[in-house]
Amino acid sequence: MENASSLSQPYAVPPRESAISAVSWAAVFAGAVIAAALSLALFAGGTGLGFLSVSPWGDEGMSAPAVGIGIIVWMLFTQIVAYGIGGYVAGRLRTKWVDVHSDEIYFRDTAHGFLVWALSAVVSAALLGSALASLASGAAKAGASVAAGAGTAVTATAAAGASGGGMERATDYFTDTLLRAERPEAGGDRDAARGEVGRIVAMSLTRGDMTPEDRDYVVKVVAAQTGLEPAVAQRRVEQAIQNAKKAAEDAKQKAKEAADTARKAAAAFALWGFASMLIGAFVASLAATWGGKRRDTLRGI
User: What CA–CA distance (Å, rounded) separates 167 from 173?
Assistant: First the structure.
């Protein structure tokens, strides 16, 4: 038989789940819109300052490393200011929760700030995604073009030189070294020979080497134009071909170094962008707790 004292105690009523969501979406949307607008405004201001800090003249403006550091600092500043204000506004505008533990209130405010950051990031990605994709694609294509085009730089120069591209062309120089006569008055039509040899050199650089038939012919042309012995002319031709190959390899190496430098800079920028986004999420969440605490401590609200 049950104890009479236990029968006299009322049964514990289980707590009911609230039918209202703990998320104040209106406050989240308001904070996200404010954060996105401030980010856009600060981005425009940073772009203007960036253009003012650089100059096409070598002795004016900031250096490239200084510009990179400035971009990173401004990016962090934008995240802190925009999402700090957006998160704080969301915390102040959210609904006041009653009969809720303080730890739960702190968690909800943190979640509201994080939602502000997430929603703003999604909206910004949707609006700027195509532009960023085009920019990244253009940068990647430019880097690939630099690396791939370096191998044919001397070849293109040779073709331009053979068609009258100018005396400063690299292939023109190598061709001139083949036709430097000890007695300039000797020889036939030097311009025609020069153009023909230039075309042979351009084709040889495209193939990677000069064929034995082309080499023998060029030796004969050089010997006829310069008055050199065939053996001496052959040594000159061999030396000129080696110089041309070395110049092409140097161009490739420099292009690869430039592409590698651009790759490292892009990777560093992406990592700093990732870090700045994490900082923005943290600042938005923290500021939302400040705004929520301030909202709950004000009487009459």
Answer: 7
Sequence-distant contacts of 132-138: CB under 8 A, at least 24 apart: none
128: closest CA among 253, 40, 187?
40
For CA atoms 64, 83, 294, 289, the dihedral sign is: negative
Q: What is the pLDDT of residues 19-74, one digit of tens each?
A: 567 888 999 999 999 999 998 898 888 888 888 887 777 677 777 788 888 888 99
* Whether 134 and 273 share a structural domain: yes
Cα–Cα distance measured from residue 196 to residue 272, given in angstroms and rounded to the nearest whole number: 54
- Cα(78)–Cα(188) distance, rounded to whole angstroms? 71
Quick one: 126 exposed, middle or buried, by C-beta within 10 A (0-12, 13-18, 19+)?
exposed
The pTM of this model reads 0.60
Q: Is residue 85 part of a domain?
A: yes
Structural domain range at position 293: 25-149+265-297
